[in-house]
Specification:
There is one protein chain. This protein is of the alpha+beta class and 281 residues long. The radius of gyration is 44 Å and the shape is elongated. About 11% of the residues have low confidence.
């Protein structure tokens, strides 16, 4: 067919077909939409797993030998890695005697009543110097550990006296003095009653501190009146005539000729009573 000179054929530009980009974009979008619909249908209809049904993770149970090796590698009661103080160390050659131990289970600290080589008893807290170059490092239920010039040595509780057959319940706080000394009977009235001067001369008192306050007075032997009054090494006076001990004057003011005192003392894990009748002048 002949086309007049100067006319153009619709859809042709210079002899090359023209492209409708708008329609082409619409067709591409429709194709992508159809592809997504097919994928959605495939996901809905196919199983969850590509290679079979889905299964949860199964528990892995170790063999008896593997479990034994696992639990043997740690101690469930001391998970912090701090080993418990053992009693198989080196026993000191110093002339030290332990009469009472007070152990604080919560803090791991405590104190001990010890007699130095000169026979004088004192109450030492963990960290106190017992002798020059000798420091109380730790306490346990039946022994103490001392640091002697950088070497650790142990002093065990004096158990030369037999233990009591029965003991009263421990204090409510769960803290007490561990001692092997049995409770002595009360001093009979009128028999070997000490005088006021002998009590003040032969018995020493050291305050026991807890949280910054006095909770008792540790008694120390300095002469025969200590035993005649009914005390034992390691005793701690907690009450005087039914009243808690608040200071040293609470008992010193009571020591007078003709006075009668009813004392409550902690003795090991037991609580005992000591009744004293002071001889008159």
């Amino acid at each position: 067919m002949r086309v007049p000179f100067g006319d153009k054929v619709r859809g042709w530009k210079g002899g090359v077909p023209s492209i409708d980009w708008l329609k082409l974009g619409e067709r591409l979008l429709l194709a992508l939409l159809a592809l997504q619909i097919v994928r959605l249908i495939w996901v809905v209809l196919t199983p969850v797993g590509s290679f079979g049904p889905w299964e949860g993770r199964q528990a892995q149970i170790l063999s008896p030998s593997a479990r034994q090796a696992l639990f043997a590698s740690f101690d469930p009661f001391f998970r912090t890695g701090a080993p418990q103080q053992q009693g198989g160390g080196v026993v000191t050659s110093l002339a030290l005697t332990v009469y009472g131990i007070r152990l604080n289970e919560g803090s791991g600290l405590g104190s001990a009543i010890m007699a130095t080589p000169d026979g004088v008893q004192n109450s030492f807290a963990v960290g106190d110097e017992i002798l020059p170059g000798v420091v109380l490092k730790a306490v346990a239920f039946d022994h103490v550990t001392i640091d002697r010039g950088g070497a650790e040595e142990q002093v065990f509780l004096d158990q030369s006296t037999p233990a009591p057959d029965a003991a009263a319940p421990a204090p409510a706080s769960g803290e007490g003095w561990q001692s092997a000394a049995p409770p002595p009977p009360a001093t009979p009235p009128g028999m070997d009653s000490p005088t006021a001067d002998s009590l003040k001369r032969d018995i020493g008192f050291a305050p026991r501190m807890q949280n910054g306050r006095i909770t008792g007075l540790a008694v120390m032997s300095r002469g025969p009146a200590f035993a005649s009054a009914g005390f034992k090494p390691g005793d701690v006076i907690t009450q005087v005539d039914g009243q808690p001990v608040a200071n040293l004057q609470a008992i010193q003011n009571k020591i007078a000729p003709g006075a009668r005192m009813s004392l409550t003392v902690e003795r090991g894990a037991a609580v005992a009573s000591v009744n004293i009748i002071v001889q008159g002048q």
